[in-house]
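ok so i was messing around last nite and threw this chain in just to see what happens. nothing serious, just curious
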Amino acid sequence: MGGLNSYRNLLIGKSDDTLARKKATAALVLVAAVAAALAFDTLSYRLMPDRYVSQFPDYRRRERNRIWIGNPRDYFVKHPRRGFDIGTNVRTHHRVDGVPYLIWGNSIGCFDREYNQDNPYIYFAGDSFTWGYAPFEQKFGTLIENTTGVRILKCGVTHTGQRHQYEKFRDIVSEIGRLPKALFVFYYWNDYVNDYAHPHSTVYDGWLLDKVAVDGNSRLVHFTDRELADDMAQFLRQTKLDEEPAMTPWGVFGASYCNIR
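result:
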């Protein structure tokens, strides 16, 4: 009987050892699988080209969207109060749906024909919808001007809210020395976020970048100059500057960290 018990205990011990080895093997396989998945995701996150990332709006969102690469380089300039604005006396090209067209900033910093002391005039303020995303001849401000015969200053600025637009309006009125006959402000639903974060953007090496964002708890997040420089360095590594991004009127990369435009 003693020998039988010993044999039974031996079998139980071997069974326990086999079960322990199977558990250990399963644990190692699981750890290896998780490590491989993390390594693959990390490499994909860092190395996947932006033309593929753009198909997934929330992927790599924080790093990607501080740079508004849909806007042409050297079109915007830094501004001491507003953060950025359209440059004066600049000319370049913009592209929407693969179609390039000429854009510019006149002597008062508007995508408009030159102001020649026209009086009376009407002033159009607004964001990207007022700015254009269309050739100058097809902008709604130009069409209204041609239809009515009334001079319209078309001074919308992409990626702005009313705080930016009002400051620009005051500066232009002060510069030209007379008030408009009427002022139209074209509002978009997300302008309040631009106002909340104002001044939220700057220009670095000719590119428009967001320096302030709004997180998921509606708190402002400020980015340091070092973070902006790192973003720009990463952008230049990952982007071929001779390739225009595929833009629509709403932009492939047009939604910033807090979906302001």
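not much to say yet. Residues 61-238 form one domain.
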